[in-house]
Request: fold
Amino acid sequence: MPELPEVETIKKALEQNLLDQTLSAVEVLNPKLRFKVPTKELKALVDHKIISIRRRSKYLLLDFSNALTLIIHLGMTGRLLLDGKSYKHDHVILTFKSGQRLTYNDVRKFGLIDICQSGDLDNHKLIKNLGIEPLESKFTKANLKEIFSNKSKSIKLAIMDANLVVGVGNIYASESLFESKISPLRQASSLKEFEIENLRKAIIKTLKAALKAGGSTLKDFKHLSGDSGYFQHSFLVYDREGQACKNCKKAIIRIKQQGRSTFYCTNCQK
Ligand SMILES: [Zn+2]
Reply:
């Protein structure tokens, strides 16, 4: 499943390829995704230009010149293709006047495509309850303190809760908690101010490192998927059960929290 850095990388690639391009045709080959693809509404974008491309959480937002926004989420296995070729599991093809073609392909069909009025995006059912963006200015110590203050759940589950903070997936949660020396089992409300600040910085650092890794492999890529392994580089704790902690040499342990694996060092993280 693509995580926030992958989606941000895809956003940049879309910007490089499709900004200011005018849509000339929409073809819906298979409308079955998480929600039915709104074919009629998509056709309203034809003859209009993409004026900006944004990201909110893991949603890609393509703003068109007629004040409509195309919302795309890649779900588990969604891919955006710019190579102009046809594949099994292609769902939607957008063709632009320049000849460029953007194809949405999804094997497991958990992704989604929707349309809304650009001015009404913040009220969209999928967008309105999303938490703070970790790479934007509202991700402050004060705001995090407020968010965590009455949360009895563990800090790992709190930072992974998209209604509180968006884009901190399972890998980045384990890595950030190790980096800030905080046990994933601590109650969110128990964090002291300096710990919140360390965690905040660690989340930013971890996401930025992943972005940098993605950005450097971005050149010429035509398959905009999040599962290409760009970020499977050296983790500090993630997927390192039984291996020596890079800080103290004690074995990293793996536990389950809400069904997801958490990796941490019981010596370094308190
Ligand atoms: Zn350690």
Remarks:
- The pocket of zinc ion is lined by residues 245, 247-248, 250, 265, 267-268 (CB under 6 Å).
